[in-house]
Amino acid sequence: MPEAPLSLCDVEPIHSPGLVQPHGILLALQRRRDTLAIIAASANAGCEPATSPAAYLDADAQALLEQAMAAGTAASDLPLGILRDAHDREWDATLRRDGTDHALLELEPVAPAASDPRRLLERLNRGLAAIQLQTEHAVACRAAVAAVSEVSGFDRVMAYRLLEGSSGEVIAETLQPGATQPAEGRPDSYLGLRFPASDIPVQARALYNSAAIRLIPDARAEPVPLLRLDGSDAAVDLSRAVLRGVAPVHLTYLANMGVRASMSIAIRDGKGGLWGLFACHHLQEPLHVGPEVRLAAEILARALSWRLSELDAAIVETRLARLRAVAPALLADLVPALPAAAGTAVQPDLATAAAVALGACEATAIAACPRTPGLEPTRLGAAPGDAALVLLCTWLDDRAAADSPASDRSASAGCRLRTNALPGMLPPSLASVLLMGDVPVCGLLAIRLPGAGWLLLLRPGLRRVVIWAGNPDKAGGAGPDPLSPRASFAAWTQEVDGLSEPWSEADVTVALALRDMIGEALLDRAAGIARGNEELRRRSEETRFFADAAAHDLSEPLWQIQVLSEVIGEGLEDLPADLPPPPAMVADLRQMTQSVLGSATRMQAMIAELSRLAVAGHQADRSQRVALREVAAEALEDIRQGPPQTREPAAAALAGASIVLDGLDGIVLHADRAQVRRVFQNLFSNAIKYRDPERPLTVVFEASQSPGGPGADRIVQVEVVDNGVGFDPAHAPRLFEPFRRFPNRAAAATPGLGLGLAICQRIVAVHGGTITASVPASGTGARFRFTLVEPDPAKLEEAAGAPDSARTLGDAA
Is 432's pLDDT higher than 80? Predict the structure, then answer.
């Protein structure tokens, strides 16, 4: 048999070789209106031009074929069972439709296994169970090759995994006893041996997307040509045909291995790509396996694919769980100025967290390089220095088109990045400074950070030993052509420098998860900065208002005290030393003294109000259970018994007033009793200050609550409605700003600094709630609605044991 050079393997017409394996018959069919025509047939079919299927098959077979061709137009492989031809020969028939009016009918000899389907099904079930029970990749592959061997009857079955760069390695093998015979250049076992990418050319790998199985029952059989019967010279696509002829170079390859019959079955990864193959060899004799056995073997391949995907997913989840466990401590170092998460369990120290993270990512070093002014690179492990990292990130920015370019080779070894995301190789000037200690960086996985910058996972170069099945760089063919298949498959050892372990899809998945964690931390940090800026803006605004209030409200009583004190002093100096003061002067001095005392009292009240604002909401003791109706009643009594300057107006307002507290009955929660009472006091005072003098005061309290329960906070909502003079709805958003007082009919009679509602807002906020103001539907008076949050009982129990339970509970709410 002539030998084809290996250089032609990637360009030979593998999809349409024009050859058919001689053990079966292939007919190419075309539907023409209401009839079927054979447009091409293998030479061993004996078909003449213009032959129809009716002339080749018996009546029952012809009827079944017509029915199958009429059943839709989707691409499909339809097993037709045992059919008879016009010569009364039985064939195992399969119709392969391509979605058009064309189809291939493959007729194969009836295999012995077809007569014992029960035994085949039992073997298949045992194999499926054995694969599913395994918890390790290698053991699952061993169970799978054993099952395929039992189902198919091949002497040797191997699980062959495709590696980075499309080379492959045998990771599991089963061999029937006595199947091999010692021969030069043919090892007894291929387990652990590597095969170069050229052994399965690119288009041969792609062909497994069309047909999962390739069968060669007899590698020494001479193929027969596929003849066109319709006068056309167009090639027939045989991509999905099991009877497709085999390239001579591959037959020579099998002969050099001592293989007489072979079958290969695609094993797919979780994304549908080609993970590897089952390679089945029969060594001494031809072996034909029928469609039932092939289907059983393909089912086993799918089962192995699913199990490997499940095991991969479990490994990734374990690695992610380890990464999440140390994320707070880790991110505090990788994201500058980011504090560890509050309220979490005790976190491991940074050294422990870094070791766990490096193990989870299976990297020797990690560097986070946000391309943001003011943020320097941060690193875990023995990563290169800042200058080298900045140079690498600049190079990535200029050249990377994908989000996760990767390399497992040093610059001297090629450093062509996986996914071809980066054109070319790392320049020597950059490779020379990418060092982890004294060891060059050879493994690089770069993940874009949100916004700008890179997350870099790094691995050093290793000295690795690869054992090949024969010298991959030397053909050593038996013929005169040096490019013919290698004759020896004996173990050949090669030492390789400048390579790291290749990055897997699992590595990329974990790296992307770390990228997302860093991205969320950066967003949290930005949000925290924004909140801090907003708080600074608010405090600055309050400080300005405070200055205005101090300048305006406090200066007037101070001026009165100063002036009246000077007048009193001057009057006392003018009194004769030996005469009693005139009664009129005594009365004037007494009146001025009372004015001084009144101004001082007003100043004292203003200072107390400012003090209450300063401390309002800063700390809440939530260890007490508070009944809202009791607290509201206490607040009302505080108003009644207040200082004279407020007691008398309150008494006048409350005379004949209607105060309804019944809507608060039954509402109990953990809260700071004194602070909640202050909220009710201020809302009562607000209603009294802004009452309508033309009608008796009415204040109605209503409350409601959400269910709450384990794992959920309970929300208590309180609504206070009065019938006072109300306010302009346009002022509602600013009512709670300190020192804000808006004009209304009661403005002239409302002393104070305008801090009551601001104090309410701060107290409500520290209890986890909000407060709003609106005008009732009646259009008169004011409605204030505030919420208080009762934390989940588990939070309360946890906070009860904390050193500062009051602060912890307030923060938890």
Answer: no
